[in-house]
Amino acid sequence: EDQVTQSPEALRLQEGESSSLNCSYTVSGLRGLFWYRQDPGKGPEFLFTLYSAGEEKEKERLKATLTKKESFLHITAPKPEDSATYLCAGGGSQGNLIFGKGTKLSVKP
Amino acid sequence: KAGVTQTPRYLIKTRGQQVTLSCSPISGHRSVSWYQQTPGQGLQFLFEYFSETQRNKGNFPGRFSGRQFSNSRSEMNVSTLELGDSALYLCASSSQRQPYEQYFGPGTRLTVT
């Protein structure tokens, strides 16, 4: 069965304290690994797509990386406005996205 | 480019009633997918429509249905509502060139009492 697991469930950081979020996946015939950011009461906002092991994508303080079994979202020197739930999803063989349950990130000033 | 829009944003319904939710995709996107998001289960795939045809379907009962119109707008319907149907219903659209790169709307918050 296709599955995406994210850890930790919640992460509290001080402003400027770098860290990483983990996404492990078992998705048959993976068609890409996707990261989204979701703020309370809003729909997920697309961040990155990764297709191949070794691939990296960056946007401001965020960098996403991909291996054959995991993806990491590295957050460098986070700010309070980075507080959100970060969702990871694998592209499944049926054309759908299989989502993890997310990591809720809180960044304190 | 305008994003994905969903109406209504909030709904309160009673058990046994039915409800219809609407989604307008990004201009030029012909694929529309629907997801249910709950605190316990996270985001779960309902179905996907492309060119007015249901292309894929998740593991939800037949009470959940949808359709797509020639202008790519989509609706989903839930009949005989149950308390467990309370959730945020999200619509996402994608292009033919990047079918898995899905862009989400703000969602419809459905509360069943």
Topology:
The complex is a heterodimer of chains A (109) and B (113).
Chain A (H helix, E strand, L loop, with lengths): L2 E5 L2 E5 L4 E8 L6 E6 L6 E6 L5 E4 L2 E5 L3 E6 L8 E8 L5 E3 L3 E6 L1
Parallel strand pairs in A: 2-11
Antiparallel strand pairs in A: 1-3, 3-8, 4-5, 4-9, 6-7, 7-8, 9-10, 9-11
Chain B lengths: L4 E3 L2 E4 L5 E6 L6 E8 L3 E9 L2 E5 L6 E5 L5 E5 L8 E8 L8 E2 L3 E5 L1
Parallel strand pairs in B: 2-11
Antiparallel strand pairs in B: 1-3, 3-8, 4-5, 4-9, 5-6, 7-8, 9-10, 9-11
Describe the structure.
The complex is a heterodimer of chains A (109) and B (113). Chain A is built from no helices and 11 strands. Chain A is mainly β. In chain A, a hairpin with a 3-residue loop joins strand 7 and strand 8. Chain A is globular, with a radius of gyration of 13 Å. Chain A starts with a strand and ends with a strand. With 113 residues, chain B is an all-beta fold. Chain B is built from no helices and 11 strands. In chain B, the strands form 2 sheets. In chain B, strands 2, 4, 5, 6, 9, 10 and 11 form a 7-stranded mixed beta sheet that branches. A 4-stranded antiparallel beta sheet of chain B has the order 1-3-8-7, with no helix packed on it. In chain B, a hairpin with a 2-residue loop joins strand 5 (42-50) and strand 6 (53-57). The chains are: A mainly beta (109), B mainly beta (113). The A-B interface holds A 31-32, 34, 36, 41-46, 49, 87, 89, 91, 94-102 and B 4, 31, 33, 35, 42-45, 48, 55-56, 58, 90, 92, 98-107, 109.
Which structural category fits the helices and strands of chain B?
mainly beta
Order of helices and strands of chain B: EEEEEEEEEEE
Question: How many strands, what sense, and barrel or not for the largest sheet of chain A?
Answer: 6 strands, mixed
Count of distinct strands of chain A: 11
Shape of chain B: globular
